[in-house]
Design goal:
Elements (H helix, E strand, L loop, with lengths): L3 H21 L5 E7 L2 E7 L1 H6 L9 H15 L4 E9 L4 E9 L8 E8 L1 H14 L10 H9 L7 E8 L2 H8 L1 H18 L5 E6 L2 E7 L5 H15 L2 E2 L4 E2 L3 E7 L7 H18 L3 E2 L2 H22 L3 E10 L5 E11 L5 E2 L1 H11 L2 H23 L6 E6 L1 H6 L2 H12 L6 E6 H6 L1 H13 L3 E7 L6 H6 L4 E4 L1 H4 L6 H16 L3 E4 L5 H10 L3 E3 L9 H8 L1 H4 L1
Parallel strand pairs: 11-12, 14-16, 16-17, 17-18, 18-19, 19-20, 20-21
Antiparallel strand pairs: 1-2, 1-5, 3-4, 4-5, 6-8, 6-11, 7-8, 9-10, 13-14, 13-21, 14-15
Helix pairs in contact: 6-7, 7-8, 10-11, 12-14, 14-16
The structure holds ligand C2E and calcium ion (CA) (2 copies).
């Protein structure tokens, strides 16, 4: 017997040795494990394994402690190889491994080789990229994608609510303050909103001027409204930015996880649909199914309008603008009209905003300029020379931001042979406040073509008198809301008087919109207003009917 013992030892040493040498050929940490009497033993390991600090004594090895059950399950299975992910360590010092368990024969239920691919740096890079992609760099809050992920992790979405908080008129604030102060404002707003939240509510920045909040509601939807009110209150308390003191108003839309949103993205969209109604009402609004219907109707109107522009279903109507003292027609305002293929007429107050929101205002606006020029050239041709009136075309703020208007007008003039002074362009105040420098350039370019510039709907916007003085504006159009019914309303009369004296001081002419009666026309003349436009003179007319107003003889 004495002779067999050294043999067995030699045999064993040789086996360990062989396995160890085989393991050394594996370039990553690898260990050969035996299961003896139900306990693990680390039979052999390579140098990389020792250096990785995965534990060289089975009982104390974190690898055996964590992976033991998985290794056992593998040995009990019939598989030759299994891959699994394993994380070692805590959040501060953490390593990620791809672990492979392998054996030569499926019946070897007591031994296998376990090897480890360290994926830590790869996973950390991926995570930081992911974090960057889901974080808003300005505020450090989750962005829209991050917000979706956040909501995704909520175990019971039926007791949660999503709020969309939209800063009112942020574009205007941003352009008045400059983008640096705009950034500062957003950061401060984020901080203020955060202060209004309860500890477990989560905040994200889901758009340029829109924040998202995820909150748990304990069966009481009023909590969401209460939070919305707290946010509105905290934002209206004036902020101190570098050089300014301002307060911010916001609109809040709320969608509940328990309602009919099919996924997270839709839940957020619902809150955003509700914001639109909140903007109109000034209150926090909860999502209603009709908001979706409205959004869908808008979308289908957008599709129909796109087709209408392509198929030339739009027309222009022409409404005269008269010299108040002589009653003579000096120009016509061109107003878009749309009758769709089913014969339904759409109101410009509905389809122009849709065109603006969808960007269709750019082709629509170009068409209006071309069409107006063609009409005026046709009138001149019929008249046999300059027919004596100008045409006024409306320009939307969005159109001024997105399109190069001056070249479009120049091309329309060139192709019809009209002089620039036959054209008036009507701009609204909102166009000027959103991007004053750019608009100023456009206005000067339009003036250089010889056109007249009118400020439309004057008095309804946020006129900054400093801009007015600097810009080449020829005419102020006093908004209809101050004119119609003015004879019975002292306040309206004072506003109209104020606008008239302002225009006089700035050397501008004035047009009163909404002149519906003879008395109004007379009063406005007495007050010194230059032109009048309204149903008293005529409603918007077809081109032929409009021409008949300037050349009645020909119409017969
Ligand atoms: P706006 O530029 O203020 O045009 C004047 C509006 O007042 C027209 O409405 C006109 O029909 C209406 N109106 C004229 N006189 C009277 C009156 O005496 N009483 C009353 N109650 N209303 C009167 P409309 O045609 O519905 O146009 C609405 C708005 O749509 C326009 O307001 C303008 O902002 C926009 N719009 C129309 N056509 C175009 C276009 O081609 N391009 C752009 N960008 N906007 C357009
Ligand atoms: Ca107008
Ligand atoms: Ca107007």
């Amino acid at each position: 017997m004495a002779s067999t013992a050294p043999d067995a030892t030699t045999h064993l040493t040789t086996a360990t040795d062989l396995v160890s040498r085989a393991l050394e050929l594996i370039p990553i940490p690898a260990v050969h494990i035996h299961l003896i009497d139900g306990a693990f033993e680390l039979f052999a390991m390579n140098r990389a394994y020792r250096l990785a600090g995965l534990g060289v004594v089975a009982e104390r090895s974190p690898m055996i402690v964590d992976l033991g059950p998985r290794i056992r399950a593998f040995l009990e299975s019939q598989q030759l190889r299994i891959d699994t992910d394993w994380t070692l360590g805590d959040a501060v010092d953490c390593r990620y491994y791809r672990v492979t368990m392998a054996r030569t024969f499926a019946w070897m239920h007591d031994r296998c080789t376990v090897s480890f691919i360290d994926q830590t740096s790869q996973i950390q890079t991926e995570r930081s990229l992911r974090r960057e992609m889901t974080t808003d760099s300005l505020t450090g809050l989750p962005n829209r994608e991050g917000f979706e992920e956040l909501i995704e992790t909520v175990p019971d979405r039926s007791i949660s609510a999503v709020l969309a908080v939209d800063i009112d008129r942020f574009g205007r604030l941003n352009s008045c303050l400059g983008s640096l102060a705009g950034d500062e404002l957003l950061i401060t707003v984020a901080r203020r909103i955060k202060g209004a939240l309860r500890g477990r509510d989560m905040l994200a920045r889901i758009g340029g001027d829109q924040f998202g909040i995820l909150m748990t509601i304990d069966d009481d939807r009023e909590e969401a409204h209460a939070l919305a009110e707290r946010i509105q209150r905290t934002l209206t308390t004036p902020f101190r930015l570098t050089d300014y003191e301002i307060s911010v108003e916001c609109s809040v839309g709320i969608a509940y996880g328990g309602d009919d949103a099919s996924d997270v993205a839709e839940l957020i969209r619902h809150a955003q649909f509700a914001v639109k109604r909140a903007k109109a009402s000034g209150l926090a609004e909860s999502y209603l199914p009709q908001d979706f219907a409205i959004a869908r109707a808008q979308f289908s109107m957008e599709t129909a309008l796109r087709r209408a522009i392509e198929n030339r279903e739009l027309r222009l109507a022409y409404q005269p603008i008269c010299d108040l003292s002589s009653g003579r027609i000096v120009s016509f305002e061109a107003l878009a009209r749309w009758t769709d293929s089913s014969g339904q007429r759409h109101c410009p107050t509905t389809f122009i905003p849709v065109a603006e929101e969808s960007g269709l205002i750019v082709p629509l606006g170009r068409w209006a300029i071309d069409e107006a020029a063609r009409t005026l050239a046709a009138w001149d041709a019929r008249f046999g020379g300059d027919c004596g009136v100008r045409l006024a075309v409306n320009l939307s703020a969005i159109q001024l931001q997105r399109d190069a208007i001056a070249p479009v007008v120049e091309a329309a003039l060139a192709s019809t042979g009209l002089a620039g002074d036959r054209f008036t362009l009507e701009l609204t105040e909102s166009a000027i406040v959103t991007d004053p420098d750019r608009i100023a350039k456009t206005m000067h370019a339009l003036k250089a073509l010889g056109t007249t510039l009118a400020m439309d709907d004057f008095g309804t916007g946020y006129s900054n008198l400093a801009y007015l003085q600097k810009l080449p504006i020829d005419v102020l159009k006093i908004d209809r809301s101050f004119v119609t019914g003015m004879l019975a309303d002292r306040d309206k009369v004072s506003i109209v008087r104020a606008i008239l004296s302002l225009a006089q001081a700035l050397g501008m002419k004035t047009t009163a919109e909404g002149v519906e009666t003879f008395d109004l026309a007379q009063t406005l003349t007495a007050l010194g207003c230059t032109y009048g436009q309204g149903y008293f003179y005529a409603r918007p007319l077809e081109a032929d009917a409009a021409y008949a107003m300037i050349v009645p003889a020909e119409a017969g």
